[in-house]
């Protein structure tokens, strides 16, 4: 799993990790039943604390995307539905818009203007 984090991103690291894993599942890099690398390996690869990765994985478990099995590690419970991926991308769009001085209402107006 090749994940990257944006050190300039204002979001907490665990949210960035969760978003990256969610995106990898949504884009098909991982299918239902596939095992993820251990949290310690992910943390080392990203240069962050293992607890940060574990928090992200727990969030994804709570969303129903991951399953934790004792002795078998973490595996993908199911593919990220189109809605989950769309919500993630919308959050990223909103954050990007806010960095450029736009409000949520401005984005809604822009979306309504699109064909």
TrEMBL record:
What GO MF terms are annotated?
DNA binding; DNA-binding transcription factor activity
Q: Does the keyword NAD apply?
A: no
Which keywords, in A-to-Z order, does the entry hold?
A: DNA-binding, Pyridoxal phosphate, Transcription, Transcription regulation
Which Gene3D superfamilies did the record assign?
Winged helix-like DNA-binding domain superfamily/Winged helix DNA-binding domain
One Pfam family assigned to this protein is GntR
Query: Per its UniProt record, what InterPro entries does this chain match?
Result: HTH_trans_reg/aminotransferase (IPR051446), Tscrpt_reg_HTH_GntR (IPR000524), WH-like_DNA-bd_sf (IPR036388), WH_DNA-bd_sf (IPR036390)
CDD domains, per database record: WHTH_GntR (cd07377)
Transcription regulation as a keyword of this entry, yes or no, is yes
Q: Which domain of life is it from?
A: Bacteria
Q: Which SUPFAM superfamilies match?
A: Winged helix' DNA-binding domain (SSF46785)
- The record places domain HTH gntR-type at 11-79
- This protein is called GntR family transcriptional regulator
């Amino acid at each position: 799993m090749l994940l990257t984090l944006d050190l300039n991103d204002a979001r907490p690291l665990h949210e960035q990790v969760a978003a990256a894993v969610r995106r990898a599942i949504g884009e098909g890099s991982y299918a239902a039943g596939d095992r993820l690398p251990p949290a310690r390996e992910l943390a080392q690869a990203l240069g962050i604390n293992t607890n940060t990765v574990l928090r992200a994985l727990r969030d994804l478990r709570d969303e129903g995307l991951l399953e934790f099995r004792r002795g078998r590690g973490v595996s993908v419970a199911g593919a990220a539905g189109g809605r989950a991926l769309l919500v993630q991308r919308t959050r990223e769009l909103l954050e990007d818009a806010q960095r450029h001085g736009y409000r949520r209402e401005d984005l809604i107006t822009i979306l309504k203007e699109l064909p």
